Amino acid sequence: MQLSLFPETQTSNVKDKSVFSDPSFASNKLLPVHRWIPWIAGFSSSFVRGVVETKLPQPGTVLDPFAGVGTTLVESALIGHDSVGFEINPYAALACRVKVNAYKLNPEDIQREIGRFQTFYDYSVTSGYLPMSQPPSGFRTRQAFYSPTVLRKVLIVQDFIDSVDDEKIQEMFRLAFASTMVHYSNYSYEPSLGTRRAAGKKNIADFAVFELITEKLNQIAFDVKWLSRKLPRHSFQNKIVNASFFDCQQYLKPNSVDLVVTSPPYLNNYHYIRNTRPHLYWLGFVKKPDDTKILVRIQGSWKSDEGGRLRLLLARSRV
Questions:
Q1: What DSSP line would sit under 269-284, residue for residue?
Q2: What angle do CA 292, 290, 162 make, to 5 degrees?
Q3: CA 18 to CA 126: how far, in whole Å?
Q4: How far apart (Å, rounded) are the C-alpha atoms in residues 101 and 237?
Q5: What distance in Å separates the CA atoms of residue 62 and residue 45, rounded to the nearest whole number?
Q6: Eight-class DSSP state of 57
Q7: Strands (E), 29-166
Q8: Mean pLDDT score, 32-40
Q9: Which of 33, 218, 213, 215 is nearest to 107 (CA)?
Q10: Looking at the DSSP assignment, which residues form a beta bridge with residue 260?
């Protein structure tokens, strides 16, 4: 067993040091699978691959205790390793789950559902259709998150997603909506979430909601085909745990992990819970403000000890 933590700024023992020439890791936004979800302070996929290939040349199990949207987990799978990821944010955990299980999807089934989506949407927006879905009642913002016109389109999208029978494809549709939902709202990331007006931008009265979501869905379908060609032939396993890594002993057996690769969260003072609040509400993960308090407390506990508890836990648990 080899247990290692590699902060992203460390370049020793990594063969390809050129990955550090892109400090914002913008290249992730162009890569298959990684590009599905925009995520602040992205974790370099090239860095992860370099570390895993160097430190774990034989098939093993890679752990990311702060998985985010799954960069470490995806790269580990592409190399051929089992992986385990802990992530307290349920929206990010959803992204991890969809990404690492995407290879199980049938591209033809995805395209069939996209076609059904277009038929449903075209009929709904041109008729007197009244959406059954409603905005999350506990979601409060300083100004309307969506304009009335955009809101109706979003609720139609929600109605369709609820009608998808295949759970994996339904989660894929939910992720496509979540990854685009801020684009047609009256909010934007600057880099923290705030109103468009505060950033000197005009509010959005109308937007091509269906077209943007469908573009994302087609991107996912294309990448699913790519995965079928790129994934190793031998079987591998992955586990996504929507819980704090500080409770890892409930989920991991001793000596079950060969390598740890992570990007420690919150040291950049970015409030991941607050900035994914729209996603948490619209995806149904939280209903009221009190539901997010446990997530904020866990974030605060990590920031307060700057990783000391993590190092102690890894040493004691010998995962």
A1: ---HHHHTHHHHHHTT
A2: 65
A3: 52
A4: 10
A5: 14
A6: -
A7: 61-64, 82-86
A8: 88
A9: 218
A10: 63
Joined together, the tokens standing for residue 8 give: 């992203």
Residue 91 is which amino acid?
Y
Peptide bond into 7 cis (omega under 30): no
Strand 187-189, strand 61-64: pairing: unpaired
CA dihedral sign of residues 167, 173, 179, 185: negative
Per-residue pLDDT tens digits for 168-221 = 999 999 999 999 999 999 999 988 899 999 999 999 999 999 999 999 999 999
Measure the CA–CA gap between 211 and 99, rounded to whole angstroms: 22
How many residues does this entry show for the chain? 319
Q: What does the alpha-carbon distance between residue 178 and residue 193 come to, in Å, rounded to a whole number?
A: 14
Q: How many CA atoms lie within 13 A of 306 on its CB side?
A: 1
- For residue 237, the SS3 value is coil
| Residue 231, both tokens | 């994934």
Query: Which strand (E) or helix (H) includes residue 78?
Result: helix 71-79
Q: Is the pTM of this model over 0.90?
A: no
Amino acid letter, 36 = W
Q: How far apart are CA 111 and CA 150, in angstroms?
A: 25
**Lookup result for tokens 């704090």:** 244
Token output for 201 = 């931008």
Q: How far apart are CA 48 and CA 68, in angstroms?
A: 13
Structure tokens at 248: 């890892």
